[in-house]
Amino acid sequence: MASVMYALLLCLSAGALSMVQGEDPYLFFTWNVTYGTISPLGVPQQAILINGQFPGPNINSTSNNNIVLNVFNNLDEPFLVTWNGVQQRKNSWQDGTLGTMCPIAPGTNFTYRFQVKDQIGSYMYYPVTAMHRAAGGFGGLRINSRLLIPVPYADPEDEYTVMIGDWYTKSHTALKKILDSGRTMGRPTGVLINGKNAKGDGKDEPLFTMKPGKTYKYRVCNVGLKNSLNFRIQGHPLKLVEMEGSHTVQNTYESLDVHVGQCFSLLVTADKEPKDYYMVASTRFTKTVLTGKGIIRYENGNGPASPELPEAPVGWAWSLNQFRSFRWNLTASAARPNPQGSYHYGKINITRTIKIVNSASKVDGKLRYAVNGVSHVESETPLKLAEYFGVADKVFKYDTIEDEPPATVEDKITLAPNVVNQTFRDFVEIIFENHEKSIQSWHLDGYSFFAVAIEPGRWTPEKRKNYNLLDGVSRHTIQVFPKSWAAIMLTFDNAGMWNVRSEQPERCYLGQQFYVSVLSPARSLRDEYNLPETAQLCGIVKDLPKPPPYSS
Ligand SMILES: *[C@@H]1O[C@H](CO)[C@@H](O)[C@H](O)[C@H]1NC(C)=O
Ligand SMILES: *[C@@H]1O[C@H](CO)[C@@H](O)[C@H](O)[C@H]1NC(C)=O
Ligand SMILES: *[C@@H]1O[C@H](CO)[C@@H](O)[C@H](O)[C@H]1NC(C)=O
Ligand SMILES: *[C@@H]1O[C@H](CO)[C@@H](O)[C@H](O)[C@H]1NC(C)=O
Ligand SMILES: *[C@@H]1O[C@H](CO)[C@@H](O)[C@H](O)[C@H]1NC(C)=O
Ligand SMILES: *[C@@H]1O[C@H](CO)[C@@H](O)[C@H](O)[C@H]1NC(C)=O
C-alpha cells in the first residue's frame, strides 16, 4: 500500500508525538477525503471517498502499533471519524467524537495519533459529523495478534473485510435536512456489501476469491444506518472465532445476525463444488426484506452462483438465542486491556447501577430521541476540552439524568448536552431498557464490557440471577430487542470523556447518546495523556491559556 509507511521509532521529532512507547512500530497513513459519484443501486449519488475509495481503505495494524493518520478534509463541511471499538487507552483526545475533538474544518488537515494498545480483532471506523456516514467515509480496521501470541485457530489463507449495511439513495445532505426538519428518514433503499450489490446478470465481478480446500477469515461489520442484517454464504457454514476484540468459543452457524455497529470474524472453508457462491446480507425485523448480495469465486471454479439464496431466519427469538450462544473463550490468550479485571468479573461488587431508557418524542413539533428523558445536543466546544480547560460549567451540567429514571421519563424530552460523572475505576452495571417497538444497538467508547444478559420485558434486580457471570463476551456494542433489556458490566478504568451512543446514526444525530466523564483525581500521566500539542481548539477554549500539563 503506497500510502502506508512502516517504520520503527528510531528518531521522531519530540513534540510531534503525544506518547512515546519505545519499540512499538508506527504506521503512517494519509487520507484524502473528497466527494465523488457512485451508483451502487443504479442511481448516481454523491458519496464520501477516502483516497478515491468507497468504502474507505482498510487499516491493517497489529496490537500496540502506533497509528499516525493525516486526514485532509476536502469536503465543504467539517468532518471527523471515530474508531468504533478502538479503546484509546488514556487518550480520549483522539477518539473522534464531537464531545472530545473539534471537527476538521473544510480545506484543512488534521493528524490523528493513537495506539491500538492491548487489543486484537475486527473493527471499523466511520464519520460522526452531519450524517456523513450515509454517504461513506467508513471502512475496516484490523488489529492482528502479535506474532508471539498464539491465536486459537490456524492461520487462514487470507483475510477479507466485509462491510455490510443498509443504504439510502438519498444524499447525506437530503437525509440531514429531513432530520433537521423533525421527521424520520424512513426506510433505506437497499443493502450493500463493500459498496456493491450484485445484479445476478452473470456479469458481476467477484468480491473475493478462495482457493479450493483453503480456509479464509471474513471480518464482517454492519456499518449500516438502521437495520440489523442477517449474514450468510450459500452452502458454507460460518465458524465464529472473534467478536469485537474477543476470541469466542468457536461455534458454527448457518447465518449470523449482525446488528448495526457490530463486527464478527468468521472462518469459511472452501470445501464445496468449485464455482461461484453468493454471500447475502438481508434486513431483519422489517416488513419488506431488503437483500444485498456479492459473489465469492473459487479459483479455477466454473459455474455461476445459484440464484436460490439461502433463507433468512424469522423473528426475534432466533436472534436472542443466537446471542445466548456467544461465549468468550476463557483459555485463549490475547491482548486484553486490564486482564486482572477480565477473568472474574462475576465476583466483583457492583458499586453503581445505571439504567438507560431510550425514548422517542416530539419537541416543539420535531422528532427527537432521548436517553432518560434528555436528548443530547452537541456543543460548539467539545465537552472534554471544556472540562480540561476548567470551563465545563459554561458548556454543560454533569448528571442531568438519573441512574434510576422515574416511570414517567418517556413523557417529556428536554434538550441538553448529556454528561454522566463516573468515579474512576469503579465497577458498574448498565442496564439498557428498550420500551420502544424497534431494535436498539448501543455502543460504549473507551472500553469493552461484559455482555451478561439480554431478556424480554423489564429489568428488576432479581434478574441478576440470570446473568452470565462466567464467560459473557467482552465487547463494545450490544443490541436491545423491542420491549427488552440488556445488561453490561465494566470497570471504568480508562480516564477520559467517553461517548455512549446509539449505533443507528439517525437516533444518534437526534440525541440518543450521552458521555461518561471519567476523571482521575490524580491528574497524572499514569492515568491520562496530556492534551496533545497538536489538538485543535475551538469554541470558548480556542484562545484560552493551556492548563498545566499532567505530571508523571
Ligand atoms: C485530494 O483529491 C482531490 C480530488 O481528487 C485533489 O484535487 C487533491 O489534490 C487531493 N489532495 C491531496 C492532499 O492529495
Ligand atoms: C496486515 O498486517 C500483517 C501483519 O503486519 C501482515 O502479515 C499482512 O500481510 C497484512 N495484510 C494486508 C492485507 O496488508
Ligand atoms: C497537514 O499536513 C502536512 C503535510 O503532510 C503536515 O506537515 C502537517 O503536520 C499536517 N497538519 C496537521 C494539523 O496535522
Ligand atoms: C479456546 O482457545 C484455546 C486456546 O487457544 C483452544 O485450544 C480452544 O480450542 C478454544 N476453545 C474453543 C471452544 O474454541
Ligand atoms: C463485596 O460485598 C460483600 C457484601 O457487602 C462483602 O462481604 C465483600 O467483602 C465485598 N467484596 C469485595 C471484593 O469488596
Ligand atoms: C464526580 O464524582 C466524583 C466522585 O465520584 C466527585 O469527587 C466529583 O466532585 C464529581 N464531579 C462533578 C463535577 O460532579
UniProtKB/TrEMBL annotation:
Keyword Signal carried by entry: yes
Keywords: Glycoprotein, Signal
SUPFAM superfamilies per the UniProt record, alphabetical: Cupredoxins (SSF49503)
Protein name stated in the entry: L-ascorbate oxidase homolog
Keyword 4Fe-4S: no
Plastocyanin-like domain boundaries: 32-146, 158-300, 381-521
Organism superkingdom: Eukaryota
Family the UniProt entry places it in: Belongs to the multicopper oxidase family.
InterPro entries listed in its UniProt record: Cu-oxidase-like_N, Cu-oxidase_2nd, Cu-oxidase_C, Cu-oxidase_fam, Cupredoxin, CuRO_1_AAO-like, CuRO_2_AO-like
Signal peptide per UniProt: 1-22
GO molecular function: copper ion binding; oxidoreductase activity
